[in-house]
Amino acid sequence: MAGRFEGRNVLVAGAGVSGRSAAEALLAAGAAVTVTDASADRLVALASLQAQGAELVAGLVEPPAGTDLVVTSPGWRPDAPLLAAAVAAGVEVIGEVELAWRLDQEKEVPARWLAVTGTNGKTTTVSMLESILRAAGVDVVACGNVGLPVVDAVRAGHEVLAVELSSFQLHWSDSVAAFAAVVLNLAADHLDWHGSLDAYGDAKAKVYAGNSVAVANADDEWSTRLSAAAAADARRVSFTLGAPAEGQLGVAGGSLVDRAFGDGVVLAGLADVNPAGPHNVANALAAAALARACGVEPAAVADGLRTFQPGAHRSVVVAAAAGVSYVDDSKATNPHAADAALRAHPQVVWIAGGLLKGAEVDELVAANADRLTAAVLIGRDRGRFAAALARHAPDVPVREVAAGDDAGMLEAVRAADEFARPGSVVLLAPAAASMDMFTDYAHRGRAFADAVRAVLADAPAAHGG
Question: How many Cα atoms occupy the beta-carbon half-sphere of 59 within 13 Å?
Fold first, then answer.
């Protein structure tokens, strides 16, 4: 029996990782595929697809005649000329995740999808979930915004998919119905893309469509509100950092406790959660809730959390010297994430700044003013950080760094090291995106680690002399 894509004319918008995977999957499904990208150089890297029959065309601003479907990369905004022209012409536009879902539903036995979204903690939660399910002997892979395109995971035939979904990916997904899903939290982010916090929340809420189990964060007002989008017949579960009520997972007696899928069952100890900190305990509870929704036993939750290895640039101690720790949390790309990073330390020399994407930092600064011993500001929007510090933490010394790229980070770390005293933490938690100075947050984190090593090599003497 022919699949739904066989013989269809499909335009793939974007020649990045997800675009390549979408094109490969469509070619395998028998579609006639055209790939476009604003960069001709990126298309050159897809020469192997051309050999398989794909047509590569740079800079399209409207779909070719006869196009039946457009599959867009997640970062393309709805008002991009090509996508707007497609919609105006009555051509359906979907994302790579939606394509993966449709391909999966054609299988005799589709995978079970467990979906995670939220402003912060998505990658950590999905990776914890993958670790827990593997400890239970489940054939699972983490995919989506975590790195592996979902369409690749579907084609590989895994039993369970732990899917990290960004608001961009959810915007372009209309029929995805994960078995269980969670919105971890919501705070201002990507407002330049979505236009408003409400629109951003609406995109996140799509993760609850069609769930059998809908998980919410009882400690987050937005998560609780958005979970109302779940179907009336969905089983509703929540988690909290407090003692759990019936139907919740929570914390009691130094342990993660389940009163949703068990009667006060102990799942793991707080010491099993790595990295430590309240935000990661919340991530662990969310991962445990999704795993328990699939029938995973408590022992596997504990084993999975103990063996979990956090990803790079997430509260990673890159060095310690003379009583000062240097922590890379470059993944803190918005104020909400930076707040969690700051709250984990009592004395912080804060390296912050970058692209704020429409977010504000006054609340962040006001909430953490008492733990800041100094601030070193980088990036395009550093002036907005400086203004917030002047308003809410006027006694905190501030240094602004105008240089960009790795040289700017080296200057920032040198300045931070001058402020540091024994017992303090030099913390890179930018609260902003990185693309004004770096390729991405990982590049920024590597630049920080390299700068720390260089500064310590140059000045090994104790601080505070």
Answer: 3
Give the pLDDT score at 194: 59
User: Rounded CA gap, 292 and 289, in Å?
Assistant: 5
Cα–Cα dist 251/248, whole Å: 10
Per DSSP, 176 falls in state: -
Residue 370 near residue 346, CB atoms below 8 Å: no
Half-sphere exposure of 89 (CA within 13 A, CB side): 19
Cα of first residue to Cα of last residue in the chain, in angstroms, is 77
Helices (H), 294-373: 298-307, 335-343, 362-368
Closest CA to 438 of 372, 370, 378, 348: 378
pLDDT tens digit string along 294-333? 999 999 999 999 999 877 777 788 999 999 999 999 989 9
From the CB of residue 107, how many other CB atoms can be counted at a distance below 10 Å?
A: 10
Listed as ranges, residues in the chain with pLDDT below 50 are: 1, 461-462, 464-465
360 Cβ neighbours under 8 A, 6+ residues apart? 188, 335, 388
Work out the angle at residue 139's Cα, subtended by the Cα atoms of residues 134 and 143, and round it to the nearest 5 degrees.
Answer: 85
Helices 278-293 and 335-343, axial angle in degrees (round to 10) = 110
pTM exceeds 0.85 for this model: no
Cα angle, residue 395 at apex, residues 392 and 398 outer, rounded to 5°: 90
Please state, in angstroms and rounded to a whole number, the distance separating the CA atoms of residues 337 and 429: 8
Residue 404 has a pLDDT of 77
Classify burial at 79, counting beta carbons within 10 Å of its beta carbon; exposed 0-12, middle 13-18, buried 19 or more: exposed
Contacts of 195 (CB under 8 A, 6+ apart): none
Sheet of 92-95: strands edge to edge?
55-58, 32-37, 9-13, 69-72, 92-95
